[in-house]
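Hi R.,

As promised on Friday, here is the backbone we talked about, encoded as structure tokens. Could you run it through your design pipeline when you get a chance and send me back a sequence?
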């Protein structure tokens, strides 16, 4: 397997297409491992990973934990509640104390934008961004891209529509950059109050507030969660109005391609972002996203750790 040109995975904004290709191709190998009766390999035996989660998570945290266990790594889960951070210790001091215990990789999730990049600059450990503020969530975007390639083949020339709270979505930002780097056509749709304040930072992306126009002839639709915890007041009149104008329903999808793939990073607000008939329909690949998340994170950890395989 090829190696990566990056030491850390902090985001996809400046990721090289070749690095993305290496991760996705390596994921394919690990995905086949997860279909075996024995799902464990010794690829990271002897290495220690710390899951440094300062923000609540279910899917991402469990997915990383499973990936680490499947690779035979030793793992430590850090909980900010009850830690020395409550006594005034800085994040950097926390990491340096953990580093002194001879760890190799750190998976960090934080509500503050730029925290993983800050830790990478001041740490000797390999840092993996599991989501930072409203900035990026690179592993979610990579599992989305892998799922789309499974379903559609090459992403070059495919049209992917991202609908919802784009302004506050780290998933949207990573997906826009990752998909664009691999040649996909990206459309972004949402209320004007939830679109990026500076759309010029996203090159070759079509922005619209008309959901039917956005999904027209699309190969895939990624619906985003309304992130009320990051929103200012009064950005939306009501959830009912959002559903009426931007919810992904069977009627809205009539202008998309037959077999359009439906995705969502979760958790889903059913009846708001997605109707249940769409979320649970034959075109939905939401559960495939969850399954593929473990394989993608296995590939990333394996590649960043230097591919220390013991085949």
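Update: got your reply. Pasting your designed sequence below so it's all in one thread:
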């Amino acid at each position: 397997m090829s190696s990566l040109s990056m030491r850390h995975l902090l985001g996809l904004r400046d990721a090289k297409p070749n690095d993305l290709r290496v991760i996705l191709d390596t994921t394919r190998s690990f995905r086949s491992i997860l279909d075996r009766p024995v799902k464990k390999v010794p690829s990271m035996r002897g290495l220690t990973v710390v899951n440094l989660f300062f923000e609540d998570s279910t899917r991402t945290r469990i997915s990383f934990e499973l990936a680490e266990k499947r690779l035979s790594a030793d793992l430590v889960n850090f909980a900010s509640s009850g830690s020395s951070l409550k006594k005034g210790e800085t994040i950097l001091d926390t990491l340096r104390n953990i580093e002194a215990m001879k760890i190799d990789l750190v998976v960090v999730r934080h509500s503050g934008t730029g925290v993983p990049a800050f830790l990478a600059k001041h740490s000797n450990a390999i840092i993996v961004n599991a989501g930072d503020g409203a900035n990026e969530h690179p592993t979610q975007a990579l599992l989305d891209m892998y799922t789309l390639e499974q379903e559609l083949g090459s992403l070059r020339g495919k049209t992917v529509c991202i609908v919802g709270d784009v302004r506050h979505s780290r998933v949207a930002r990573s997906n826009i950059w990752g998909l664009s780097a691999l040649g996909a056509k990206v459309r972004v749709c949402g209320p004007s109050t939830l679109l990026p304040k500076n759309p010029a930072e996203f090159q070759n992306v079509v922005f619209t507030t008309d959901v039917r126009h956005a999904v027209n002839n699309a190969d895939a639709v990624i619906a985003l969660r309304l992130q009320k915890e990051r929103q200012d007041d009064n950005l939306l009149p009501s959830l009912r109005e959002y559903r009426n104008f931007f919810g992904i329903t069977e009627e809205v999808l009539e202008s998309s391609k037959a077999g359009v793939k439906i995705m969502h990073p979760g958790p889903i607000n059913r009846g708001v972002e997605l109707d249940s008939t769409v979320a649970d329909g034959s075109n939905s690949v939401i559960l495939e996203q969850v399954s593929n998340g473990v394989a993608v994170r296995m590939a990333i950890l394996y590649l960043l750790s230097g591919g220390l395989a013991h085949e």
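One thing I noticed while checking it: Residues 286-304 form the longest helix (19 residues).

Thanks again,
M.
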